[in-house]
Amino acid sequence: MIVSPSTRQHVGAQLCALLIAATGCLGSIGDAADDLAAVDDLGADSSRAGLVCEPGSLFPSPAPIKRMTRVELDNTLRDLLGSRERHATAVPEDDYGGGYNVGSTISQLHIETYLAVAEAAATEAMGRITTLWACADYSQACARAFAERFGKRAYRRPLEQSEVDVLASFFAAQQSAYGGPEAQRLLIARMLTSPSFLYRAETGDAGLAAFGGPADGVPLDRYELASRLAYLIWASMPDDELIAAAERGELSTTEGIERQARRLLGDPKARGGLRNFYAQWLELDRGAELEKDAALFPRVDDTLRAAMNGETRAFMDHVLWDDDATLTTALTASYGFVDASLARLYGVESAYQAASALQPTGATSLDIGAAMGETVVAEPALTLASDGLDIWGTSDAFRYAHFSIDGDGGIVARVSAMSGGSEWAKAGVMLRDGTAPGARNAALHLTKAHGIVFNRRLLDGGATVSTAVRTASAPVWLAIERRGDVVIASTSDDGVAFVEAGRAHMVLPSSVHVGLAVARGNAPEAVRATFDGVRQHGLVKVDLDPSQRAGFLTQAGVLARLSRPYETSPIFRGMFVLDRLLCTHLAPPPDLDVDLPAIDPTKTTRERTSELTEKGTCAACHTVINPLGFTFESYDAAGAFRDTENGKPIDASGALQTSRGRTAVVGVVGEGGLLSALVDDISLHECVATQWLRYAFGRNNVEADDCSLAEVDRRFAVSGYDL
């Protein structure tokens, strides 16, 4: 999706301020500098009120050595080698620092898996070795040139000549033992296991005189700053242009950092990088908490859980890139992203059907490869016929009726009838990068006599891989969808409950085609297939009831994660607001029994929670936690809205305790609700800035960060609290 210049300007100001703070230097950013006088005083309510922070001064703070996280490793291999696989899934789970994923500890298992990842990634890279090696032979001159060029990208800095010597000698030894191609592969693998690749160590540059500063602080060198900028915005390595800017010394000024930050934000990779932050901030990867008691919540199946997992990600993407990108919108917007199952939970089935429908008359039909066919539209169905031989091998010949999509999404349709063609005649749904016969694609087909198959071609002009899914015949529902770099195929007998049929990791451009495809197979007779129920697959944007839903806090995925399998948890929900939105840490007392009394059908969860926590050592903290959590009691453990529990009316009254004092609220949305008190509270605004810093540094904030955070607070206010 296209990012408007105004949105990019706002987002850039927020992240540029954070990058300047990350260097420890306070300076002016763009045209916003003239607006600072209006917010120079953060106000008496600010937790940072009274700080004396001289602009242009250094405020050094700890910078722990960080190993790449699993997301960063996969993204870096993608940008370094063109990797299309998720190699980092083999690496142990990331550590946790400041509430965010970090790489810190190292174990024998880490060492073994990093070796395995390097071997696998290097083997995959051999498919592009001509481009990577960029030299005519296996000579020492070529090996040294590769070590210098590739090493500069892999290590994110120029190599010392001694490092080049070691790598060139290693290549020579491997070439002598195993030959040129294997030596190339082993050289790449060796570099991928180097600490200079796996770690982002920041040793600083005492010679960076432009920054000045006290003796106890060492500025980042220009390459370290480039890496910090790239991994903050892209969650990946610096590109060649950023490294070149660092070499020219352009990152020694706030204007240079801003210019590069805005460029990085204009790249599609910024979507994934920022999504990495928001997913961790809002704890969207806690998938296990979406498991619910099947007897109490029968509609929470795999399909609904998948929608819950994607809902807030799609919402935040839209707010950031297609709406005004403000914190207010993220907290109060009364729209959401739903599939059929989530639409039922929200009671917006009609809105979903209207929003997701793909009109057959809107499809673009064409023959791909050596094929002749036709498309006949008879609303709401369409029939495709083709004499194209197959969708297979390295080049296809078939009939295709497609729609264009930008970003995540897909298509679902029912194959209602199929005739003609051979036993391997195909009719199905396809996601495709272009209309060339050898284009990358993934497709789920119903065959004439061999059931459903999942086919994918991962490289342009590459071979097709096929997996048998299950026996089936028309009518049957087929769906294919892209979620980031993953394509997922699924089937259904009723068009509502879908079962995953397969998935593939595919790096595709933002804009792709999704559509319907038919091919006859090895038979003289053309195939003919009729499709109906054609609609977008995945999550689509719909308006929700503003009296029930507003922003991410009232989305089913967030609410269900903050619940138990069988009931809500006011404690979990209250603690989430305190920890993630207000940065208030409450340490649990030792030997605490957190289990509620047995479920009593005569009492509400609110009543039972109060009984457990209103006395003894629990009371001091729970006078803050419970009133926040109780405001969410209008939503059950699956996130559905409710008016009663156990025959009693819901009591959603509560309170918000912040730097401004205690404010009585009722419910979450609407006038007098939690959001109306929260959205303008300076504690929330300061916490968002703090969360960004914790993510960037991979640690909790310390006193030395206060002046840097005050600068980000000011910039955040100037931007209108633009995320």
Structure description:
This protein is α+β, with helices and mostly antiparallel strands and 723 residues long. It has 23 helices and 24 strands. A 7-stranded antiparallel beta sheet has the order 6-9-18-11-12-13-14, with no helix packed on it. It has a 7-stranded antiparallel beta sheet with strand order 7-8-19-10-15-16-17, with no helix packed on it. Helix 9 packs antiparallel against helix 10 (240-247). The longest helix has 20 residues, at 302-321.
List the helices and strands and how they pair.
Elements: H1 5-23, E1 66-67, H2 70-81, E2 95-97, E3 100-102, H3 108-125, H4 129-133, H5 140-154, H6 161-178, H7 180-192, H8 195-198, E4 199-200, H9 222-233, H10 240-247, H11 254-265, H12 269-281, H13 302-321, H14 327-332, E5 335-338, H15 340-346, H16 349-356, E6 364-368, E7 373-378, E8 381-386, E9 398-406, E10 409-420, E11 426-432, E12 441-447, E13 452-457, E14 465-470, E15 476-483, E16 486-492, E17 499-505, E18 511-519, E19 527-537, E20 540-543, H17 556-561, H18 570-581, H19 605-613, H20 619-630, E21 644-645, E22 648-649, E23 653-658, E24 661-666, H21 674-678, H22 682-697, H23 706-718
Antiparallel strand pairs: 1-4, 2-3, 5-20, 6-9, 7-8, 8-19, 9-18, 10-15, 10-19, 11-12, 11-18, 12-13, 13-14, 15-16, 16-17, 21-22, 23-24
The number of distinct helices, counting runs of at least 4 residues, comes to 23
Mean pLDDT: 88
What is the first-to-last residue Cα distance? 18 Å
Report the helical percentage. 25-40%
Radius of gyration over all CA atoms, rounded: 28 Å
Low-confidence blocks of residues: 1-12, 24-40, 207-215
- The backbone outline, from C-alpha atoms, is globular
**In what range is the share of β-strand residues?**
15-25%
Secondary structure category: alpha+beta
